[in-house]
Amino acid sequence: MKRLYSLGDSFMTTDDPNDGIISFCELYCQQKGFSHVSLARPGATNFAIRLQIEKAIEQKADYVVVGITCSDRVDIALKSEVLYTLDNVLYHGYRAQSQRHVKQDQVTLVSDTFHDIENSKFHNAVSDQQIQALKSYIAYLHNSSLAVQKDYYIISDGLRKLQSAGIDFLLLPGNMQQHDWSWVRNVWPKEKFMPYQLPYGTEGWYNPPRYTSTHNPAHAHEEFCETMLSITKDWH
């Protein structure tokens, strides 16, 4: 059975538990008869997504779907490593199926949004002193334009490595649509809504009693799945 890996942040994730909203990558795999391995995690940084790419390559994925996130995020090392891997990134507590595919016995890296780290939404691994330092960094040092350019180079390196490995992939540029992706064979078409664009507003962001980390409602995922099927007709 072919294995499709989905990578990215909350918009690309698969809920755990599943409250009835099935992600478009899961729907796609059901229609194609593929096995779905979700590595996407809410709040993931683009560096964490680069580590997701590395794991997908190491595990010899047949197909990969990569969603790029925004750059208002930060990676905080809890301990120095010779080389950080995805298994070092905190994954528990995000209600995402990806926690089933990422080991958590050596967590030494917190990768998340400024807001969630500051408010300790999912974890208490970051100290009060680190949070105060983060606030100062955001106020005086963080530059959005610089952060986006750095992330573009980080993700581009991962995509080129996927190409070198001969792994077919589909790219969802997300907030980096303005960058040059002409060298990528499969890019989500501009005329079709991406999950990041929330075509139905915030209907799926929080809609009691049904909550989804993906932020999009069920009918949006069905549309995304149809778009993906039309882009990847040669994936079988």
Quick structural summary:
The chain has 236 residues and is of the alpha/beta class. The protein contains six helices and six strands; from the N terminus they run βαβαβββαααβα. It has a single domain (3-231), classed as Rossmann fold (3-Layer(aba) Sandwich).
Strand content: 5-15%
Order of helices and strands: EHEHEEEHHHEH
Which structural category do the helix and sheet elements fall into? Answer: alpha/beta
Output the CATH class name. Alpha Beta
Number of helices: 6
Would you count the extended β strands for me? 6
Spatial shape: globular
What is the averaged pLDDT score? 93
How much helicity do the residues have? 25-40%
What does this structure look like?
It is a single chain. The protein has 236 residues and is an alpha/beta fold. It has helices at 24-32, 46-58, 114-118, 128-140, 144-164, 218-231; strands at 3-7, 35-38, 63-67, 73-77, 109-113, 168-172.
